[in-house]
Amino acid sequence: xxxxxxxxxxxxxxxxxxxxxxxxxxxxxxxxxxxxxxxxxxxxxxxxxxxxxxxxxxxxxxxxxxxxxxxxxxxxxxxxxxxxxxxxxxxxxxxxxxxxxxxxxxxxxxxxxxxxxxxxxxxxxxxxxxxxxxxxxxxxxxxxxxxxxxxxxxxxxxxxxxxxxxxxxxxxxxxxxxxxxxxxxxxxxxxxxxxxxxxxxxxxxxxxxxxxxxxxxxxxxxxxxxxxxxxxxxxxxxxxxxxxxxxxxxxxxxxxxxxxxxxxxxxxxxxxxxxxxxxxxxxxxxxxxxxxxxxxxxxxxxxxxxxxxxxxxxxxxxxxxxxxxxxxxxxxxxxxxxxxxxxxxxxxxxxxxxxxxxxxxxxxxxxxxxxxxxxxxxxxxxxxxxxxxxxxxxxxxxxxxxxxxxxxxxxxxxxxxxxxxxxxxxxxxxxxxxxxxxxxxxxxxxxxxxxxxxxxxxxxxxxxxxxxxxxxxxxxxxxxxxxxxxxxxxxxxxxxxxxxxxxxxxxxxxxxxxxxxxxxxxxxxxxxxxxxxxxxxxxxxxxxxxxxxxxxxxxxxxxxxxxxxxxxxxxxxxxx
Length: 576
Fold this sequence. Notes:
mainly alpha, 6 strands
């Protein structure tokens, strides 16, 4: 017999207690204990949502607590669609209880997870009609919903109209900016938050460190680190892992190691963050050594750890070692290979010029290859001059039908056609993109100077110091030519004359950023740049020359990896 007052720890206990409640003559105790059983079934990891829903349906009188708890439980599931259905029933069934301030945050969370922006906007209208526009808890849910649907601009409008904002409001908005690749706005908002005296919490710190990592804003990142130490914010593991990731992505692997060494109880996430950082910096032997140490201490790698170690092999060009890790993943570590792991192997083979093996590997994969894998191989065909294979793959695979709204496929095919001087075919790709409203993401580079992140796009003349930057570039070009620099005009895949090609190359975003860095920092000071795309060969050659001519250490993080340029050499050894 289960006592009516005992704590519920299992579903069988809950069911026994439910049976006693049904037999109980006391209506007050019946309601109180039924609430306990229902809450356990709905929200406990040992509960059962189906059972909870049966209890909800059995109620003779509708109760907002039961409905809200059920919506909250469904919103936590991998597919929160049932939360939407239950919310709609609250609106349309005459006997149902009406949504209130406890209903909206959970249903807005469901909209965010389902990317249902249209429904989210309708709910926005409903809650205003319900007079809840001043409810901080509901407004925070609205910010989260818009941010989760990729509409950080709309989220910021809600944020701006709030009369009172708590740390959750600020953190949700910062996180929304980061997710929407508005990292500079995220950093600015964090600084506003600190100026207003709002105390950051662990979630705030992790979000802003993510922004610093994405933007390469190491100065801001160090200030946040200081705030963490001064105010003892957050759990050691979570915040420390974010710090390791920030320092590694901002180009200071030594600082990332210091944070890692200072962690008392290192979990798999901390180990993975540093292994990944070492791999991206080309310190691949150190990454492997660290992976071995992690195993020695009895920690099992997870999916991300395996991606990190495979990336180390890829960046070093270690084909046999990469295959050894890949083939032991499931048997030795219990990690089932995902599309990301397959992608590392394809990239490893493709970069090494082993195109036959790369194609065979893709065709024999146990998971369905995505368009990105085929693009990796086709791009490698272009790099290694195997035009026949790239033509065959493009015709056989019909990449554009695999994902007709994937901009990357159109750009790749256009570039392959251009490299073969098939300008008519490239023009067709451009026309198709225009018809579908697709835009190629522009090359963008960021540099932090005196705690402020400056952003440049290719040919950018909108910067406040554009005139000085272009003058500096002209000076740099003269000094480069004196050292024998010859622009790699083949990098410009446009049907224009050579002078225009040379001008386009000179005004690539990372060259604008490095010119700005040369102007705004003292001689001998290092320059750090973050780029959103892979560096082209011409920019890579120019950075090597500038590091030698101006005696500057230059660190560039492109989409693939880090490049440390020192005295005319690069850490990647021209393999990227």
